[in-house]
Here is the input.
Amino acid sequence: MIEEVFRVNLPVEEQLTLKRNRFSPIDRDAAGQKRISIVTGIHGDEIEGQYVCFLLAKWLNENPDKIHGIIDIYPAMNPMGVDSITRGFPFYDVDLNRVFPGSTTDFLPAQVANGIVQAVKGSDYAIDIHASNIFLKELPQVRISRSNADELVPLAKKIGIDFIWVHDAVTVLESTFSHTMNTLGTKTLVVEMGVGMRITKAYGQNLSEGILNMMSQVGIINRPLTPQGKTSISTLNSQVHFINSPSAGVFIPSLEHNVIVSKGEKLGEIINPLLGEVKDVLLSPCDGLLFTIREYPVVYEGSLIARILEDRKEI
Ligand SMILES: [Zn+2]
Here is the structure.
C-alpha cells in the first residue's frame, strides 16, 4: 500500500512529499509483527538503492502469502535531490544525512529529516542503502561504528554481504540517519555499494537476495535461504589502507576492484596527457582485499585512489 508519510508545501502551489510502499501480512494481524524499513535516496545522486527497492517490491508483490511482518520501502528520502540528480538537498546545499534527527521548526531539510525519523521510528530494523559517490566504486559493504558492533555485526552477517567494515565512530556520524535510528532502538545498517549515478545490476541483485535472506531469518518473511558469497570483515587487528594520489593527473587503473591484491602489485598509474608521461605508479602497500577503487579519473594530489583491507578475515 502506498502511503504518504510527510508533506510540505512549496512556494508555487507544489508540494514535497515522502512516500513509502508498505507490505503487510494478508492472513494475520500485523500488530506485534516485526517491521523493517528499507531506506534509500538520502543522497539524491546515489541510485543503486532504486534497483534494490524495485527487486524487493517485485518479490513482495509476487509473494503476498509469504509476508509475516511489515516491510516498508522508501525509495526517495531526498526526492528533490533524486529528481534533479543532486547529492545534497537542492537550494539549501546541505547534506541531508548531516541534519538528523531534524526538527519540525528548523529549515526545510531538517523538517524532512524529522519526517523520515517519525516515519521509520518503531521499526525493528532499517537498512539505509548508499551508493558511494561519482568518484569511488565500492564493493558492497556494511559500515558499522565500533560502538554498535556487538549488536549490528550479527545482523549484517545475515545479509551475506561481501564486506563488513567496523570502523571507529567519528563525531560527524552522529548527525546521520543511522545513528539517530540506532539511538531510538531501530537496528540500522548502512550499506555502501557501487558508484554514484549508476546502477550495478549484480550488486542490486545480490543485496536484495541478502535482504530477503535476512528478513527470512528474523521472521518477517517465509522463504528458503538462498546461497550467498563469503563475507570479509575488518577486525581490530586488520588494517584498512588508504591509497591517495601523490600528484595531480589522470588515474588509469590496472585492476578491477573486488580482487585480492599482493603487496607491491600495481594498482594503476597517474598519467599526464599533455606530456605523454607517467607521473606516478601506484603500488599496493599490502596483501589484501581491494574494496574501493577510483572511478572518476581526474585526480588531485591527495585524492583517494583505493582502499585495501589487509589481513581480511572471512566469516
Ligand atoms: Zn550516500
About this structure: The domain at 2-232 is CATH 3.40.630.10 (Aminopeptidase). The mean pLDDT is 94. Helices lie at 48-62, 79-83, 108-120, 149-159, 177-183, 201-217. The two ends are 37 Å apart (CA to CA).
